[in-house]
Amino acid sequence: MPPAAAEPLTPERILATTEEVLRRFGPTKATVVDVARALGVSHGSVYRHFPSKAALREAVTDRWLARSVVMLEEIASAPTGSAPSKLEAWLEALFEAKRHKAGDDPELFATYTVLLAENSGVVDAHLSELIDQLGRIIAEGVAAGSLAADDVPAAARAVFDATGRFHDPQYAADWLSPTIITEFEAVTALVIRGLRA
Amino acid sequence: MPPAAAEPLTPERILATTEEVLRRFGPTKATVVDVARALGVSHGSVYRHFPSKAALREAVTDRWLARSVVMLEEIASAPTGSAPSKLEAWLEALFEAKRHKAGDDPELFATYTVLLAENSGVVDAHLSELIDQLGRIIAEGVAAGSLAADDVPAAARAVFDATGRFHDPQYAADWLSPTIITEFEAVTALVIRGLRA
User: Which range marks the domain in which residue B26 is found?
Assistant: First the structure.
């Protein structure tokens, strides 16, 4: 990434460059000075947007997690489609997004695994957002009579927990197994069947 | 454990002592010489039963895992009780056994987490045995008309995967959460509902 100090120094540019720097140097070696150098600015300029290295790492973690949320939100809030088929599409999209992150860019994925452990608050907020999306799909199904749940937030949490093997980064090594798609489909079918009215 | 060389040196005595030694010294420091010393025998006597340190570690891992299998097998092969209630009892017993192992003796649990990573063949065989027990309960329910499954082994695997948060040692830290029992019950109810005929 060539220095391009002429462009305005936005938080987004800083975060994109931070991701590049993390990918190149790894999470233990990357510093704010490296980020500033890659941007062709002083480290003071970076600190004006992110007051500490910790704040910058937190923001980059948040941005990485947020990327899949937008696409999942589109499925959750789609005006058409039955709740059971939305649920299936949502779980598939989540698994696919995670597998791609782990498979296409394993170094960056490993980096983020380190950052996730550091920023448990950011991770918890991310997981709540995902479970909230699941809850909206389930509530829609309950209203339409296709799904049954006495306690929608608890059901959403149960669906999320039951499918953990297919989105928790702890299981990333399993995602390379030749039988993983079949196993994912079996769990998804079981869970959706368990919610049917 | 005082030396008691007068007792016959059975594999079971060697394994019980090895567990003690592992608990005391940790998995990286414990040696066959430590085990022999605790037993009051020569290390050659230990090697007559277990030809290498690796064989001894594998056998002690196997013995640790086998302990919960016996109790779960009793539930799986009980002559009375409906399949859905057996399934619930089996999943509860598995979670309780794991939580006790992790909570009552965290040092030994951490030791075994290291051994599990070393002996993936032993672990795979153990998991197959558990999934096989689940399969027998499900097959019984299918025969009695209380459960439905086109492919019983696949359904057993799906139940095991869907409840992973409550038996996979990777999640041991979560088992201390005040809401874990509620979350376990929600997942179990969802999964059993998903299998009902």
Answer: 11-51
